């Protein structure tokens, strides 16, 4: 390649690096994403991996394909949804072309006016991106504070002796009197399940799909402050999980939606179950308990506590979801799924990438659930009813992340295709 061609390609790449995720989104095959809030987050199926809400894109912040990959720039997003491998030079340039909406330079000389125009375009894009990022950060901060306040209010107004006790007793096949005391779980008598937007309304207001009782639990930051809440809708008439069937009206087949949601902030927080106390409005872990047990969900973690006693030396907490338990991955550790392939935009079968088992080195405490610094033994409760390769990699990453401080970390696996609450649900009623 000539020096001129190399220089043009360098400028082309530099210009592509300056493109924000929001600018690139209209140029990428992301038509299935839905705007979820005023923060600008978009959620929906991944064009490469499928799913219902697997891909999350937040302009100015980054993007996440659950169980596959994540990143913070437009080029990485383009590569993922187009099935490109950024380690290959040709694929990298194709991803740059996708976010710019132009073809890769062919190496011909560029006149002085075109060179000057390109430099001005790069400078203007950088300036606009910096101003936009500052504005978004201010808006996101205000929105986050408002959402945390709403989530905190939901939990504070919940009923401590409500229907969630009956729900847990039936899910865990125990009598209410035999349940371990989880004092921070509560019930909201009538909580609305909002989903999507009403396209017929110019205000695009959320759609009410269901209203009914819900178990509410707080997400607590390491400081002890309540920063979010976890909601589980309850329907005691629907066995075996006693949760309502809520259908997605936008899905062609009326696919079921998750009967759980989270409000406010979850990343970096945890759901306190057993071994916590309240002091001056804060929810804090017992400093005399050096052992920590956690799973994704409330039910599986409470089942682990039941199986153990619960133990007086143990803090029991739920992470809310696998991403918050495992934490972000080092991009270099990702690997191709050994079984799944998906066609790219040209119909060529490409590998699906899975987030690797190595934690990202530069993560902050706000990126994933934290354990108290005095904990020296950790047990993670796994689910086996999710995609096995991604789940195994996530659990290994969580083990590595949480064991980096010297704690001994183990993983408890249920039988393949099940989680621990499934085992209990299928067993005869016990006491």
Q: Would you spell out the secondary-structure blueprint of this structure?
A:
Elements: H1 3-17, H2 21-24, E1 34-35, E2 42-46, E3 50-58, E4 62-65, E5 69-71, H3 74-82, H4 89-100, H5 112-156, H6 164-171, E6 186-197, E7 206-220, E8 226-233, E9 260-264, E10 271-274, E11 276-279, E12 282-285, E13 291-295, H7 298-308, E14 314-318, H8 322-326, E15 335-343, E16 349-354, E17 377-381, H9 388-402, E18 408-412, H10 420-426
Parallel strand pairs: 13-14, 13-17, 17-18
Antiparallel strand pairs: 1-2, 2-3, 3-4, 4-5, 6-7, 7-8, 8-9, 10-14, 11-12, 15-16
Helix pairs in contact: 1-4, 3-4
Question: Gist?
Answer:
The protein contains 10 helices and 18 strands. It is an alpha+beta fold and 431 residues long. A 5-stranded antiparallel sheet has the order 1-2-3-4-5, with helices on one face. Strands 10-14-13-17-18 form a 5-stranded mixed sheet, with helices on both faces.
List keywords for this structure.
alpha+beta, 2 domains, single chain, five-stranded antiparallel beta sheet, 431 residues, five-stranded mixed beta sheet
Characterization of the model:
The protein has helices spanning 3-17, 21-24, 74-82, 89-100, 112-156, 164-171, 298-308, 322-326, 388-402, 420-426; strands at residues 34-35, 42-46, 50-58, 62-65, 69-71, 186-197, 206-220, 226-233, 260-264, 271-274, 276-279, 282-285, 291-295, 314-318, 335-343, 349-354, 377-381, 408-412. The protein is α+β, with helices and mostly antiparallel strands and 431 residues long. The chain folds into 2 domains: 3-133; 157-328 and 363-426, no CATH class. A hairpin with an 8-residue loop joins strand 6 (186-197) and strand 7 (206-220).
């Amino acid at each position: 390649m000539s020096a001129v061609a190399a220089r043009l390609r360098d400028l082309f790449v530099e210009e592509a690096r300056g493109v924000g995720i929001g600018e690139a989104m209209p140029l990428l095959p992301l038509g299935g994403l839905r705007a979820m809030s005023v923060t600008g987050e978009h959620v929906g199926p991944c064009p490469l991996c499928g799913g219902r809400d697997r891909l999350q894109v937040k302009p100015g912040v980054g993007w996440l394909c659950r169980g596959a990959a994540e990143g913070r720039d437009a080029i990485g997003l383009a590569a993922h949804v187009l099935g490109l491998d950024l380690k290959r030079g040709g694929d990298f340039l194709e991803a740059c072309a996708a976010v710019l909406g132009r073809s890769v330079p062919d190496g011909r000389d560029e006149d002085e006016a075109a060179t000057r125009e390109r430099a001005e375009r790069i400078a203007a894009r950088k300036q606009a991106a910096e101003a936009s990022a500052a504005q978004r950060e201010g808006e996101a901060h205000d929105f986050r504070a408002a959402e945390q306040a709403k989530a905190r209010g939901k939990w504070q107004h919940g009923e401590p002796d409500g229907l969630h006790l009956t729900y847990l007793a039936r899910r865990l096949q125990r009598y209410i009197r035999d349940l371990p005391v989880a004092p921070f779980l509560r019930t909201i008598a009538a909580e609305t399940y909002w989903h999507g937007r009403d396209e017929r309304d110019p205000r695009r207001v959320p759609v009410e799909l269901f209203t009914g009782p819900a178990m509410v639990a707080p997400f607590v930051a390491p400081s002890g402050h309540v920063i979010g809440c976890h909601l589980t809708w309850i329907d005691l008439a629907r066995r075996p999980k006693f949760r309502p069937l809520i259908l997605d009206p936008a899905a062609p087949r009326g696919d079921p939606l998750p009967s759980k949601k989270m409000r406010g902030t979850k990343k970096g927080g945890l759901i306190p179950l057993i071994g916590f106390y309240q002091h001056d409005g804060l929810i804090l872990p017992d400093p005399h308990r050096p052992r920590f047990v956690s799973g994704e969900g409330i039910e599986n973690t409470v089942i682990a506590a039941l199986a153990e006693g619960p133990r007086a030396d143990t803090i029991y907490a739920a992470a809310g979801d696998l991403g918050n338990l495992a934490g972000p991955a080092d991009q270099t550790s990702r690997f191709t799924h050994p079984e799944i392939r998906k066609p790219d935009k040209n119909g060529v079968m490409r590998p699906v990438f899975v987030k690797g088992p190595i934690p990202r080195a530069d993560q902050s405490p706000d990126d994933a659930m934290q354990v108290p610094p005095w904990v020296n033994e950790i047990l993670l409760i796994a689910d086996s009813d999710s995609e096995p390769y991604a789940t195994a990699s996530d659990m290994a990453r969580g083990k590595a992340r949480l064991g980096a401080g010297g704690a001994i970390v183990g993983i408890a696996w249920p039988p393949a295709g099940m989680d621990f609450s499934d085992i209990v649900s299928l067993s005869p009623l016990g006491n």
